[in-house]
Amino acid sequence: MKRKIIPYALAILLVGLIPAQVYAIDFGISEVQIDAQLNADGTADVTEQFTYEFDDDFNGITRSLIEKKGTAIDNFSAAENGKPLKVEMEDGVYQIHREGEDGETIQIELTYEISNAVEKFEDGAQFYWAFFDESNESEYGDLAIAVTPPAPAENTEALGYEEAYGTERITDDGTALFELGYVPEGENANVRAIFEPELFPDAETLSGTVRDDMAQDRKNLENEAAAFAKNQQTARNVGIPAIAIGGILLLIGTLALWFRAYKRKRQIRNYPYEFFVPKASMSIPALLYFTNSVFLSPNSISAAILELMRKGNIRQLSEDHFELVHRKTDHDHEAVLIELLFDQIGDGREFKLSGVEKFTKNEDNHAAYNEAIAEWNKGVSQEVKAKGFYEKHPVLRWTAGILSAAFIGLAIYSGIYELFPWMAASIVLAMAAFGIAISYSPITFEGHEIRHNWRQLKAAMQNLPANQWDRLKTDEKQRAYAYLLGSDPKTAERKAMAFTSAESAADDSSFVMNPVFMTAIFVSAGSTTTASASGGSAGSGAGVGGGGGGSGAF
């Protein structure tokens, strides 16, 4: 009976904290045929045929076999088309060596012997075994298990458990067949077959009976199946409408929020535009963070240096050489950058770009450099946050959070009763509602206006006529060029000569003469420091008596 649902699989889909199993080799097992030939002494000779389809080059396959308590597995061997293959045991897993290439399909035959496989009681001899268990990390496309008695049997009984429930049938000669078909990974399946005890004269007879025990198991499983079917119908009647209604409400709400944001953006975009430099509402690094990307690139450091030059905190002595004028800053992140450049890299009063390169080439300094840049980034984000450009909607976000929790409950409920399409829909809806709950903070009208104006400026500067640039005030030129350098370094490089030639080299607040060179230094520093920062085993067995196993490849 396919009632089991793996709870952690749902958790993986919902929170994404645990990565799914990733194989080193990409393969599929399309067909598995297992034949257990029982012998008169109670042993079993097992033959397994696995059909593997590979999408990568490979070295072989694996098979884990976990012994049931009181039994032993011996004489394991492997062959392909009658040709023996090398077998090694490592960490409780058999490794069958057979190299091959991408796109190849192979059929491997495994054979082994199970001692004490049959338990002989007064009214019957049973084979009760798990050929795989929840530790199995491979799905089987089509699985069939045959349990054959030593001689034709007339009073065979068979019962499958979990994945094998309802798959059993008895052939004319008394063989018990379990035709499971597709079996997902991580599932249990025990097979049980009872034959006449006279067929096993050489096996030890245990006291007691076994057929009544199987009959009771069958009755219990049938009762559970009936109860499950009833509860499943209830889940259909209750869960499906709840998921559908909740999904419709979430969709309507999401569309309403999207339309509100779209209307606000469209209103601003319809403004007639004429080139101008917006007023200084934030520092240049903060503008880059808010209007361009929250991941500040090394180009942003060059823009921040130009900003400090514009404000008069530092002065450029030559292309490579800078002097600290004063430490009084408007923002904490500016003080952090001054400390990194002049105190850690420089001598407290001056620093050179060549010193940045020398400092970051020393691996002992990488941690300090990365920590300072991280602190600078944090300060920039805090400046943006303090501006209040994001609206707060606590009631709406709490509502979305409650709705997400409700969808999680519906996903678990529908999953337990195997309504898997509706479970998947609930998971998607839960993730959507959770996304709104944690991230819905729409930008204010003022924030959209600032974004629009600076992005328009960047676009206009790509082909800006020299006469329009010349009409700008010095402060406007410095802010505009620093923003362009931080957000679009390619355009800044192309415009560097034209935009900086108008500035007086004697002016202490003038642009650096070669900002592209400066940017290259910090790009290199960022790359250097970032680079620095930067088979299986068998389980205990979840099958009957601790048995089980699984399949894989390497």
Automatic annotation (TrEMBL):
Keyword hit for Transmembrane helix: yes
Domain DUF2207 intervals: 29-195
Presence of the UniProt keyword Transmembrane helix in the record: yes
Coiled coil: none
Chain spans, region Disordered: 532-554
Entry-linked Pfam families: DUF2207, DUF2207_C
Domain Predicted membrane protein YciQ-like C-terminal per the UniProt entry, residue ranges: 296-476
InterPro entries: DUF2207, YciQ-like_C
Comp. bias regions, Gly residues: 536-554
Transmembrane regions: 238-259, 395-416, 422-445
Source domain of life: Bacteria
Keywords assigned: Membrane, Transmembrane, Transmembrane helix
Protein known as: DUF2207 domain-containing protein
Organism of derivation: Planococcus liqunii
